[in-house]
Amino acid sequence: MNSTVKTVSFSGLFANDVLVQVHISTGLPSITIVGLASKSVAESKERVRAALSNMGLALPPKRISVNLSPAGMIKEGAHFDLPIALAIMIAMGALPQEYLDETIILGELPLRHTLYAIIFVEFCRSITRLLS
To answer: 23 vs 56, 82, 112, 126, 129, CA distance in Å?
Structure first.
C-alpha cells in the first residue's frame, strides 16, 4: 500500500517541491518519518494520529513509513500535517490517489479534525491583494 502527495517546503520566499510518500507494511505498529524532517515535522505524526482518530478513522495496526523527498532538503513547519494525513488515508484506501494527483497540499492539523491557516500563505494572499 503506497501513496504520494505533493507539497512544498519553504526557504525564505521560495517554495521547493516536496513529495510525501507513504508505505504501509506489516510489522510493529508505528509511524516513522524520514527525509530530514525538523522536530515540528516529526511531531506531526501525533497530530495526524489524533486528527484521523477524531474523524473516526483508525490507523491500521501496521508499520507506516513516511518519506519526505528530496531527502537532502531540510523540511520545517507544521504545514506538512495535512499532506501526511492525506497520504496515509490514500495508502489505507480511504481516499483515491487520483483526487490529489495534480494538487499541492499544505495544512496544519490541530488534534481535532479541523485545519489551521498557513501564515505564509495568508501573507502572500495579503501582498497579492495590495499589489493588485
So the answer is: 21, 16, 24, 37, 40
Confirm if 18 and 115 have CB atoms less than 8 A apart.
no
DSSP H helices, 1-118, are 39-42, 44-54, 81-92
Rg of the chain taking only CA atoms, in angstroms: 15
pLDDT in tens, the chain (132 residues): 899 999 999 887 788 999 999 999 999 999 999 999 999 899 999 999 999 998 899 999 999 999 999 999 999 988 999 999 999 999 999 999 998 888 889 888 887 766 776 655 555 555 556 666
CA distance 30 to 91: 15
Domains of the chain are 2-131 (3.30.230.10)
